[in-house]
Design a protein that fits this description.
single chain; 737 residues; alpha+beta; 8-stranded parallel barrel; binds alpha-D-galactopyranose
């Protein structure tokens, strides 16, 4: 009996001391307009993650916050802000390091916090952490973008020990969430089928979204996600998080549902074969992980990301983009001067603003008349273009068009002068046959000489031909053999990270000299669509698939994370070259006008009534649709993934005085079956005139031209007569006072 009493007292003391351990001494709240991210520091100086969600008015409540003790340990059940391997964390670590003395354990304690709130739109916070034993430091950086409700996080890891430290895991960010269930939307795909969407309920264990391809990392997956708590994501309601890693190299986003039903999200560079050695005094900076949260569903999550992306995540995101004619699908490699000037004549007549000469214009010793030669030799091919690029540039200008050019400067065909002159610049593995992909090899951007070369491809083209006003930057293969002749044996694992950092060094140099120049981000289509690359680009080639039905799905998935203003979307010929599908020109135009409109076909093949329609559609895009696609708010109304066989979306001006509505019939429907489209994002109290444009001879709404109350349009909705497959409708909404 007596011993039982002692045992009880002992238990009480133990549990009391455990609770005492988690006693909070400091609250660090990072705020945006509608969200709060809260960390606390406990009495043992641990930086503890507490909360990320809807803004809390009383962060002081966290001072009282305590955690329950973990069984069998003298620790509590709280989650470190940046969990390391060693002492306490048994889940996937954000950081694991082999210290100078060989120790595998790291345990960080809080040192200090710095805040910079000198800007009203962006607050910067740096939390300084240090290993309890070693001179090894971590800075946890958080940028809070106030109006966009976006935060970004990254870390700087610094070795102040006497010898080298090897980092084996070095994530950008750790985010634990607590709910009854978790629904993860992520993206998958292939060439010509990027950003497919899948949503799954997470179960215990680890779900990983990752890439080990080094380059063209977003062709099959994307380092982004939407996470909905307690139910599958809804467009307009529910707790929803969005995340996207700003990194164009290997990535790993791990979602570990642990035994406490907490979801641990760890995002960053993929540590796969990438161990990083830090010499004394050196530091390693991880890429930024971007997050947003809304309690109004994934629609608001996307709008937050678009708003942030336009302002901080891309170049010129709030600027009007030109309508482009790209030569690729209209001419491929088979063109001469006349083909191109003919295309320009037609482009100008149609109202297009920029002509882009795609692949096939370069290489002399090894002419680029196919994809098997010439890559790397960036001199104009004298047979095809005897008067050089300047002749074409001048011709474009004489037609009132800007001139753009395709390059793929990270790559080389074995059949090229570049491969002959610099075999050592090629990514390779000693003694092994080089594996070509699309007949090409990859240049080793970890090597500063290659960085100079790639920079000079861009810079000398623009210096020699100052009339070029647009570059499409392509990258058509990934890494299959990692290996650099430049890096020493001990640093071969640095190759993956250094390739991407080398690419960013080149981008930085380009942007320092050409800050606003129009550059399209392309990698066999959407193979490099991430906020790391987008930061240096004005737009992205969403997919090589120009079939409008495929594009409805691809652009829908893309719109979850990336701003539609950057989504290059081209009208091509029918039957489509990728899918062989036949679709009407109106359907192709209506789909393309939901993004950055362009054309990619031989324009002289569009004649008669079709040509008249093309001219009208381009005119309407310029006058009314384009400003809304550029800076309006996107509301997705009907998902193509729903069973109905419809898709619909709209863009609403910030002042809610104008909007454009798109609706598509994407499957055959029984006669008389029509979609009812409930609009969104309007002002319930305003009245709007609803006017169909690009009608192509048929009216698709009984109320065309009439005025309706915002609340009617949003709550009752409008039924549209678009039952035939590939019928579509576009409406302009204007506030009537
Ligand atoms: C890639 C691009 C295409 C086109 C071709 C040219 O596939 O994605 O748009 O530029 O290369 O070879």
């Amino acid at each position: 009996m007596k011993s039982l009493k002692y045992l009880l007292i002992l238990c009480l003391i133990l549990s009391f001391s455990d609770l005492a351990m988690s006693q909070t001494t400091k609250v660090i709240e990072i705020k945006t307009k509608s969200t709060s991210l809260v960390y606390t520091v406990d009495q043992t100086n641990r930086l503890v993650f507490q909360y990320f969600g809807r803004a809390t008015a009383s962060p002081a409540g966290f001072l009282k916050q305590k955690a329950y003790p973990k069984p069998d340990t003298n620790r509590d059940y709280s989650y470190e802000a940046y969990p390391t391997f060693g002492l306490g964390n048994i889940n996937e670590p954000a950081l694991a390091a082999i210290h100078a003395d060989g120790s595998l354990n790291t345990e960080l304690e809080f040192l200090s916090v710095e805040r910079d709130d000198s800007r009203s739109d962006l607050e910067k916070t740096v939390i300084h952490l240090k290993d309890r034993v070693y001179d090894f430091e971590v800075e946890l950086h958080t940028n809070a973008f106030f109006s966009e409700d976006v935060i970004s996080q990254w870390v700087v890891i610094r070795n102040l020990e006497k010898g080298p430290v090897h980092l084996t895991n070095f994530a950008s960010s750790f985010l634990p969430l607590k709910a009854e269930s978790y629904y993860l939307t992520h993206f998958y795909g292939a060439w010509a089928g990027e950003m497919g969407m899948v949503e799954e309920k997470l179960e215990n264990g680890i779900k990983v979204i990752e890439c080990k391809k080094g380059v063209r990392t977003t062709q099959t997956e994307n380092p982004s996600f939407i996470l909905s708590l307690n139910h599958p994501a809804l467009e307009n309601e529910g707790d929803c998080y969005g995340g996207s890693l700003a990194w164009s190299g290997n990535y790993r986003l791990a979602f570990q549902l642990d035994e406490l039903k907490k979801l641990n999200i760890i995002s960053g560079i993929n540590p796969f074969l990438s161990a990083w050695s830090l010499n004394p005094g050196e530091s390693f900076t991880t890429p930024e992980m971007i997050y947003t949260y809304s309690n109004e569903g994934r629609g608001q999550v996307s709008r937050n990301l678009h708003e942030w992306g336009r302002k901080y995540g891309m170049v010129g995101g709030d600027q009007i983009h030109d309508i482009v004619l790209n030569s690729w699908e209209g001419a491929y490699f088979s063109f001469d001067e006349n083909t191109l000037t003919g295309m320009m004549d037609d482009a100008a007549e149609l109202g297009i603003e920029t002509f882009v000469l795609d692949d096939g214009w370069f290489g002399n010793k090894y002419p680029r008349s196919n994809d098997d030669a010439g890559l790397g030799d960036w001199q104009t091919n004298k047979n095809k273009l005897p008067r050089g690029l300047d002749y074409l540039i001048d011709y474009a200008h004489s037609k009132g068009l800007k001139f753009g050019l395709w390059i793929e400067p990270e790559m080389v065909n074995p059949e090229s002068e570049l491969a002959e002159n610099h075999p050592e610049w090629i990514v390779q593995s000693p003694g092994r046959e080089k594996i070509a992909w699309r007949n090409q090899l990859l240049l080793d951007l970890s090597n500063p000489k290659v960085q100079d070369f790639v920079y000079n491809v861009f810079d000398s083209l623009l210096t020699t031909h100052p009339g070029i006003e647009y570059i499409k930057w392509d990258a058509n293969r990934h890494v299959e053999q990692a290996g650099s002749t430049w890096l020493p044996a001990s640093e071969q694992t640095h190759f993956w990270v250094l390739y991407t950092k080398g690419l960013y060094t080149v981008y930085e140099r380009i942007r320092a000299k050409y800050p606003n120049f129009m550059i399209q981000d392309c990698a066999s289509g959407g193979g490099r669509l991430d906020y790391g690359a987008l930061k240096y680009h004005n737009e992205y080639w969403t997919s090589d698939n120009t079939d409008p039905l495929s594009r409805i799905f691809i652009q829908y998935g893309t719109s979850l994370i990336y701003p539609p203003v950057g989504s290059a979307s081209h009208v091509s010929t029918s039957p489509n070259h990728q899918t062989q599908r036949m679709t009407p020109l109106k359907f192709r135009f209506d789909v393309a006008t939901t993004g950055r409109l362009g054309m990619e076909l031989q324009p002289k093949n569009i004649q008669g009534k079709e040509r008249e329609f093309a001219v009208e559609s381009i005119r309407n895009y310029k006058q009314t649709i384009r400003p809304l696609v550029t800076v309006g708010d996107l509301y997705r109304l009907i998902s193509p993934y729903d069973d109905g066989g419809w898709a619909s979306q709209m863009y609403v001006a910030k002042d809610k005085a104008e909007a454009v509505l798109f609706a598509f019939s994407i499957a055959p429907h029984t006669r008389g079956v029509f979609p009812t489209v409930k609009l969104n994002g309007l002002d319930e109290t305003k009245h709007y005139q609803v006017k169909e444009i690009n009608k192509n001879g048929r009216v698709r709404f009984w109320g065309d031209g009439q005025t309706f109350a915002g609340d009617y349009l949003m709550n009752v909705g409008i039924e549209l007569n678009i039952s035939d497959q590939f019928d579509s409708a576009v409406f302009l909404l204007k506030e009537m006072k």
